[in-house]
Amino acid sequence: MAWLVTGGAGYIGAHVVRAFGTEGIDVVVIDDLSSGHRGFVSPEVPFVEANVVDRAALHGIFGGHQIDGVVHLAGFKYAGVSVQRPLHTYTQNVTGMVSLLEEMADHDVDKIVFSSSAATYGTPDTGIVTEQNPTRPESPYGESKLIGEWLLRDQARATSQNGPGLRHTSLRYFNVVGSGYPDLRDTSPHNLFPLVFEQLVNGKVPYINGDDYPTPDGTCVRDYVHVSDLATSHVAAAKALTAGRELEPVYNLGSGDGLSVRQIMDAVAAVTGIDFTPDIHPRRPGDPAQIVATGELAARDLDWRMRHNVEQMVASAWEARQTVRAED
Q1: Annotated catalytic, 173?
Q2: CB within 8 A of 76, min separation 6: which ones?
């Protein structure tokens, strides 16, 4: 038996795949390589280059392998770009989920861990977010992730009429950083760590959007969680579902206190040895001062905890950036 990891060649997905391997659990990967990298996945892991909207590819995987469950990470993940590309976003994230759930039902696969997003909350009324906070997504990306959660809920309800039904949980998180392996790095053109590193590598000065927020140092405070910690909890969720444990429908994977953008910049300067003072740009419209999630429920059920401090997050990410592979 094996777990199917969709998007398993991506930055987060590849860490999840290796976390499964550490636990001795076989995996199969599907990824269209639109943002992932074939070199992130070991040649020993069965790999299908395809999109999850491709029913024929999914059918071949479920028919050709004994799939026990699914970790669904594949999707279009750029909230800002989703505003300009809503139809593409919904196709990848909503139609993709429908295709996956249909194939799972056709092949009697009844366990799924969904990589959701804290973008489902939108701009919360409070700086500390719990799973009870109202969901008010503000982008097609956030909306598509919330719809994915609804699809899981409704499919579980429908399939439970004639049996145990679909068993599922969704994991919501904010900014994923760091690296667990020197050959796995974040290559997103939209995320803070890669953006800052590229500025420094190219001899430019990183910048902060606004330093007059009502926070301790005036810059925005956000959750930053290490990708290896995240991967550990994805696998813990899969193992819990396999063991038949009851899980919450949604978990936040949060730090509980967060880090400011200036703290990140200071850590980058200290770790890289590149002395710089970030430029200050105007605030970006709509940026809340603080969004931080608690992780208490996930700590209780999914082995969630912050195992890395900010310096370790930056150091691991910088090491991976320094060992850029030629094929990237």
Answers
A1: no
A2: 82, 85, 88, 89, 92, 93, 141, 144
